[in-house]
């Protein structure tokens, strides 16, 4: 398998929030989603050329994959790419938990192959990485990547795969204006040097960098993200004001600029979408050009906010 055959979009579509139950306050995001609304946004995304969908078994423990699979039935399989994950922490006890979790994902997604399959968290790189090799050989997985791995773990996974004639073809880590650990740890440089695409998740920090939220208008109470972020909102005002200001000059909004920043840094943002108008923002983001001064000013304001948004599931890079 070569990276030449993996189509890397400007932006990938995230469906973590699709794993919510649909009841306010019940789920990580507190999202209210309907089948019709998701079909509408999928149609709009595909019309705009955004066709790589990222999910995982642990997003709602299968709910995100199930909902996504139902929505994507309306398209030819060749018309979109699927990205999902094996999570070691949720592995079963069979002889091959990776193959088993993949089969469950294939069934929920209604497909017989995954375009990009990830080891979600490192746990034990030497133990889990070799399980990807037979899946590449039998074609059920077309390309493989690693997520939430530090540089030494990425290098080990790459060595294991190369011995079988494959390689790590993508990296996916938390990366945003507020959390640049993958850059500081040299992972972005490694990706550039190795020609490996870097997918950045939580670019908008679960909506906190959208400019929508403030101390007066906090995140949905009862959601996990409210517990994480609401206390940070006062310290983020200068940054979100600057995102808004830069966006206004280009006919765009604050979240579009945060996404454009991630693109300017050489990454492919994975942006969670739950409404059709989110697609309009992705279109705007891909057309924004930020100056070096704007990038530096945004990063300085982010540093000055002095917040730590590392997820509970993430290790230090």
From TrEMBL:
- InterPro entries to which the protein is assigned, alphabetical: AKR, AKR_Detox_Biosynth, NAD(P)_OxRdtase_dom_sf, NADP_OxRdtase_dom
Q: Cytoplasm: is it a keyword of this entry? A: no
What cellular component terms from Gene Ontology apply here? cytosol
What residues does the NADP-dependent oxidoreductase domain cover? 11-302
Q: Does the keyword Oxidoreductase apply?
A: yes
From the Swiss-Prot or TrEMBL record, give the protein name.
Answer: Aldo/keto reductase
CDD domains named in the record: AKR_unchar
Q: Which UniProt keywords apply?
A: Oxidoreductase
Gene Ontology MF annotations: oxidoreductase activity
């Amino acid at each position: 398998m070569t990276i030449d055959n993996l189509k890397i979009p400007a932006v990938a579509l995230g469906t973590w929030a699709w794993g919510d139950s649909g009841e306010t306050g019940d789920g990580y995001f507190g999202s209210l989603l309907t089948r019709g609304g998701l079909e509408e946004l999928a149609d709009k995304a595909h019309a705009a050329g955004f066709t790589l969908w990222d999910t995982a078994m642990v997003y709602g423990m299968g709910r995100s994959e199930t909902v996504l699979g139902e929505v994507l039935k309306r398209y030819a399989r060749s018309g979109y790419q699927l990205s999902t994950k094996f999570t070691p922490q949720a592995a079963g006890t069979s002889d091959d938990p990776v193959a088993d979790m993949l089969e469950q994902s294939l069934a929920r997604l209604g497909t017989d192959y995954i375009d990009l399959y990830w080891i979600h968290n490192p746990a034990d790189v030497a133990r889990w990485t070799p399980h990807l090799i037979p899946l590449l050989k039998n074609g059920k997985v077309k390309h493989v990547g690693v997520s939430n791995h530090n540089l030494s773990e990425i290098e080990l996974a790459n060595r294991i795969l190369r011995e079988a004639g494959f390689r790590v073809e993508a990296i996916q880590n938390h990366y945003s204006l507020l959390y640049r650990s993958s850059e500081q740890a040299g992972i972005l440089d490694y990706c550039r040097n190795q020609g490996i695409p870097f997918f950045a998740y939580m670019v908008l920090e679960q909506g906190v960098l959208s400019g929508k939220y403030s101390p007066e208008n906090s995140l949905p109470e009862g959601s996990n993200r409210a517990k994480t972020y609401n206390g940070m909102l006062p310290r983020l005002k200068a940054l979100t004001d600057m995102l808004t200001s830069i966006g206004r000059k280009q006919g765009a909004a604050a979240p579009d600029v945060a996404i454009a920043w991630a693109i300017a840094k050489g990454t492919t943002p994975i942006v969670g979408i739950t409404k059709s108008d989110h697609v309009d923002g992705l279109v705007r983001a891909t057309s924004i050009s930020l100056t070096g001064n704007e990038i530096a000013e945004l990063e300085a304001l982010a540093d000055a906010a002095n917040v730590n948004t590392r997820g509970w599931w993430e290790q230090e890079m």
